[in-house]
Hints:
Elements: H1 13-21, H2 33-37, H3 49-57, H4 61-68, H5 72-75, H6 81-85, H7 92-105, H8 114-130, H9 135-146, H10 155-161, H11 175-186
Helix pairs in contact: 1-7, 8-9, 8-11
This protein binds iron/sulfur cluster (SF4) (2 copies).
Amino acid sequence: MSSHNEHPVKNNLISRIKNNTGVNIYKCYQCGKCSAGCPVAYDEMEYPPSMIMRLLQTEDKQNEVLVKKSYAIWVCLTCEMCFTRCPMEIDIPTVMDYVRQESLQEKIIHPKAKRIVASHEAFINSIRKTGRLHEMGFVMEYKLTTGNLTQDIFLAPKMFEKGKLHILAEKIKDTALMARIFKRTKK
Ligand code: SF4
Ligand code: SF4
């Protein structure tokens, strides 16, 4: 039974992050240590990690969309430098990961990030099918998805010679186990 003392349940991005990952962004007090230590904050990201925390704290719908459409969430290396430096122990890489998922679901990913997404998907599909990374399948799927067919083509014979590129996929024995892992992860 509800009472008038209960707070209404918020469904903004900062609350969904808290509910789904346990990370509390309200604790951020904008010291900037995360941004100062981030290897890509100023060269690659349009918003450094501390600014992403601030944009989310505003609970403003437009700011949430800015974050979800940003390139910053895709160039994050998940290196955890920010997390290590944060006095409030805010797990920023997990936040980035969560926002990437919503950005993907809503199909509002930054145009420059499409290659990164194609590479992630090719990697996951290779693991899903064989339980291992099949280099040739991974490269072909990435190239077909991005339409980037000829880049690095001269590298292939050298890699093949050195045994780094396998034509046939090697499978792990228990592929059913891999299927179960993917099914449970999806849930
Ligand atoms: S995890 Fe991402 S945001 Fe944090 S320091 Fe590394 S690249 Fe920057
Ligand atoms: S280091 Fe932590 S508290 Fe400081 S700005 Fe970054 S997220 Fe906020």
